[in-house]
Amino acid sequence: MIQKRYKLRFSDDNLQESVAYILVSKFNIQPNILRAEVRDDGGVMVLEMKGTQENIDASVVYLSDAGISIRAFDKQIIKNQDACVDCGACISVCPTRCFTPDPETWEIVLNYEKCIACGTCLNACPFHALSLPL
Amino acid sequence: MKTYGEINERIRRKKAVVYTAEEVIDLVRSKGPEKAAEKVDVVTTGTFGAMCSSGAFLNFGHSDPPIRMTDIRLNGVEAYGGLAAVDAYIGSTAMRENSGEFGYGGGHVIEELIAGNRVRLRAWGPGTDCYVRKDIDTYITLDDLNEAYMFNPRNVYQNYSAATNTLDRTLYTYMGKLLPRMKNITYSTSGQLSPLLNDPHLETIGGGTRIFLGGGEGYVAWQGTQYDTAAPERNGVPVNGSRTLALMGDMKQMDHDYVRGMDVHRYGTSIAIGVGIPIPILNADIMKRAAVSDEDLYTTLVDYSVTEKGRAALGEYSYAELRSGTVDYEGHKIRTSPLSSYRKARQVAEKLKDWIENGEFLLTEPIFRLPETGTVKPLEVRR
Fold first, then answer.
1. A127 to B48: CB separation less than 8 angstroms, yes or no
2. Same-domain check for residues A51 and A105
3. CATH of the domain at A68
4. Average pLDDT over residues B105-131
5. Using CB atoms within 10 A as the burial measure, which of B61, B91, B93, B139 is most buried?
6. Which chain B residues are Cβ-neighbours of A101 within 8 angstroms?
7. How far apart are CA B320 and CA B240, in angstroms?
8. ipTM
9. A106 and A46 part of one domain
10. What is the pLDDT of residues B221-243, one digit of tens each?
11. How many other C-beta atoms can be found within 10 angstroms of the C-beta atom of residue A113?
């Protein structure tokens, strides 16, 4: 079993597809929808899939064939290293505890595996070092 | 017992023994303060965090024809021009109007100047017989300015209360983003590295003390505003905001690594500055106090959802507990965030240590002692 994260874009034609149901029933995938929103230019979904490599690959092909744009999304939050001063304001606001200080250097390390792209940290950073391009 | 003169002589000969306030902890634990005081000449401290009461005096030089600037904008941020014709003061929290989603303010202007960037200067004046020009629109850099020096009325707060929020909605404060129902705690200090926590009664730090300010040399100019000596103490160190320093230093020596503009969401703009103060180890008592560790330094937890006057203390926590990432409050684990950078604080203390070890930075005996007593009075609203 592996776990992968993708960003999906929907157009007006496929906005109402029940992605999660198809992934479960057809490909035995455990989907976790981290974020979903409908915007003026279509829909955006951040989706985590848990399953075998084979099934995840097949799901990606299926969704792509259904006209949904899908691409890997493993570094959701972008951290500008020049702007970051390693203060730690982000640490306690993150619901999944992505930010941890290195006990030796006190550099604040971002663990992308845990990030669910919620964006809670963005306005906690006084140095504008964090962004979430969706 | 050592004197300033003896220590400076050793610095000049590059023989001074310098420890950071963090490194010296273990030394004093193993050798004891007497032995350690014989060995160590200087302990360097450091901090890097928000210091809102900061700003800079700038002199732009005279244009031809000249202008007496009364209304001044630097990258759209207002600078105070109620001084002589081309002198101004830009404060860290002055904010550009309509700066949009990302606030831009005086702290950012100061950072950009130090980084060597071009800054747009627009100014207006009344137009007088001696200053005929009424407006000017140009670009300046730090090099163009005749003088540019920071003068910060209140820096390096000696300790500061930690913040939490008991309301059921998020609060955006100068102590950062405080999640509802005490879901997090923020604190702002470098603890065992912090300048005024290592010399709690200012035995060695006073008027005229030479310091590290923003990457260059600076000085203690005066006691800081809201200087307070009445705070309760634990292990001989205040447990909430108490003494403060007014600092000044030449911006032309500064490095933008140690001076950063801040945009604190829904509070406004500010500035983060790296400050380091050397502590001469004149005797074992001073040594003992400079070796204080996060386990022995405490701060008070207060609720930022009530106004300052009504803020009851919710508890006292050591910086070791706060720095561990979670603290216990009535059986609940609450997560913590530092707001000042420990990595940068360490970098400041290390840099100052380098300067002293290389014989580039001599210590100064204070010209005057800062007040032994000071209290903060409230502002009464009178009709």
1. no
2. no
3. 3.30.70.260
4. 98
5. B91
6. 325, 342
7. 16
8. 0.94
9. no
10. 999 999 999 999 999 999 999 99
11. 9
Is B207 within 8 Å of B367 (Cβ atoms)? yes
Are the beta carbons of A123 and B172 separated by less than 8 Å? Answer: yes
What residues does each domain of chain B span?
4-51+151-357, 61-145
User: Does residue A134 sit in the same domain as residue A101?
Assistant: yes
Nearest by CB to residue B264, choosing from A92, A93, A126, is A126
Residue type at A89?
A: A
- Supply the DSSP string of B235-295, one letter for each residue: TTEESSS---EEEEEEGGG--GGGEEEEEETTTEEEEEEEEE-EEE--SHHHHHHHT--TT
Partner residue facing B179 (CB), from A89, A93, A128: A93
Query: Residue B296: phi, psi to the nearest 5?
Result: -100, -5
Is the Cβ pair A85, B265 closer than 8 Å? no
Q: Mean of the pLDDT values across residues B364-377?
A: 96
**Domain check: are A66 and A100 in the same one?**
no
- Domain extent for A99: 76-134
Is the pLDDT reported for residue A76 higher than 90? no
Same domain, A36 and A51: yes
Dist CA B193 CA B25 (whole Å): 10
Which of the 8 DSSP states describes residue B84? S
Query: A109 — contact with chain B (CB < 8 Å)?
Result: no
Last residue of a domain, one of A23, A40, A72: A72
Contact B102 A92 (CB under 8 A): no
Q: Do B341 and A126 touch (CB under 8 A)?
A: no
Chain A interface, best mutation among B93, B101, B174, B177, by max A CB count within 10 A: B177
Same domain assignment for residues A12 and A28: yes
* pLDDT tens digits, one per residue of B36-54: 999 999 999 999 999 999 9
**What's A84's domain CATH number?**
3.30.70.20
- For chain B, list residues whose CB is within 8 angstroms of any CB belonging to chain A: 48-50, 102, 172, 176-177, 179, 183-186, 260, 262-266, 270, 272, 325, 335-344, 346
Catalytic positions of B, written as ranges? 130
**Are B348 and B276 within 8 A, CB to CB?**
yes
